[in-house]
Structures are given as C-alpha cells and as structure tokens.
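Check my protein:
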Amino acid sequence: MRRKMVVVLPVLGSEYCEQISLSAATHGFDVSFFTEAQEALPALADAEVILGQSELLSRNAPKLRWLCTPSAGVNQFLSSDAFAEPNAMLSNSSGAYGVTIAEHIVMVTLELMRRQTEYNEIVSQRAWRRDLPIRSIHGSRITLLGTGDIGREAAVRLRAFSPHSLIGMNRSGRNPRNLFDRVITENELDSVLPDTDLLILSLPDTKDTRGILNAHRLALLPRDAFLVNVGRGSAIDQQALEALLRDGHLFGAALDVFEQEPVPVDSTLWTCPRLLITPHVAGNMTLDYTVEKIIAQFLEDFERYCSGLPPIHLVDRSIGY
C-alpha cells in the first residue's frame, strides 16, 4: 500500500507541484494537492505527511507523522488539541522569508525616515513642497531584536547604508556570522534602548517574547527614534506605542503585525500619526523566490524524513520554535 502525502497551498505553481510529485513518487508516496484546508479533509484519514498551514489539517489526520507548515510562525499548532496524533513531528519554513522581509524592513524604514507618506499626501493634493527634514540610515544606531534568518538578512542590507552601529539581541548572546557589532541578551536591553535610533523586531511569539517591549521599554527609546515590527504583534504593548506616537515621543513606527488581525475598522490605529501600517504582507507568499525556498526546504526535509532523519527545520512545540 502506497503512503500518502497531502499538500495544501493556494500559491503553488505547476512546476512546484511537479517537483513535489516526483520526489513523492521516488519514495513511494501518492500526493494530493489542494488550495484550501477544507477541501483536503477527505484525504486526511491516511495522510502520513502534510505540507500546509492550517491546524484543521493536523486535527483531522490520525495517521500523521510529520506536518511542515509553509509559514515561519507555528502558533496555530501549539495548543494541546492541535494534533490528532500527538507524536507527529512539526517543522516550519523559517529561512524562506528572510529576503522578502528584510527588503520590507528597508522599504518602510526609508519611507519613515524620508517622510514619504507625508510627501504622498502633499502630492495627492497637487502641491509642491520640498522642505520636510529627513533622516538617514547612514550613521544611525540600529538595534535588531531577533538575529534569526530575518534579522541576519536585514543586517546585511542595513550594513550597506553605513549605520553607526548594528546591535542584535537573542537568547544566547552569540553573534551569527559576525554580522553585528555586538549581540546582547534581554537583560541588557534596557541599557541599549536609550541609544537606539532604529529599533527592529523580528521575534517569534513565545512566552519569553510576549510583551517584551512594554510601556517602560518603549519610553526608554529616544524621542526621535523609529520602530519597525515584522515579527509578531504580541511583542509590543500596542496601546503604549500608540500613546507615544500621538504624544510625539517617537518620530515614526511601521507595523506589519498587530495584537489583533485584521486591525478592526474602528481601531484608533488607523488615524495614529507617524504610524505606517501594512496588512501583514512583509513575509507573504506573493514573492516567487519565497515559494521556491519553501518548496526547496520542504523537499530537503522530505529526503531526510524518508531516510529516518528528523527535519532540519524541526519545531520544539514545548517552546514554540
């Protein structure tokens, strides 16, 4: 009896389906492709391997041995009832999003520093004004909370702008590939924030990162600092951030992630001054390079799985990454 693989991805082109099908057939798997989790339900009864990002899949696959989510975040799979087979392995696609999210970081940073949103408004009124004071990444003191794939890719790109310093923060204090001038742990964060011009967050949602940037720490930032969050909305006290922006304490902030998504239509965030909102698109699967990386990583881990080895991108569900 042939083994079963289920793939649920709405953005999968035919070339990627062919790659997956060929690899699956080589190892004695039949593969079924779907665009929505609900459509895949009839195929889950005997699915051994799943590529998909809905907990609806893992909850309805009693014979599941391995699920790979095409996203980097795994929160939807961490509840006690997320898996019908509690011993199934979970892996993610961390490593596939660094390029696109790093480019997003650079984009919104430049928009904020160069006052592009304000110039857009000026131009929309067919006005001609050129005197808004702007800032530069050049010479800025940058702190990146998170030195994983996203933080590393961002550091490479930001270094090209000749900042004054690049400081990273992670749990270990290790400096990956020596990309940062210095790497700190959380217990040093309070001492670094007052000397930060640009603060970038690319943290996962874990018990250690929730609320890490509370009201006290936000207030430690210089009055003209910038903040960019592309990690998870749970890392920041959103109300405190909004209050500081409205008070003029921060020069600007760019949020791609929020405590509640979508942001409610009646939220005061929509009218918050100096706040650039994007609808969680920094790491979307709309860039073909990202999809290519997701599939390449999945197939690499699939080869390992078929050889009896754990996936490279295995997630420890007890800690959330």
User: Anything to note?
Assistant: The chain has a mean pLDDT of 96.
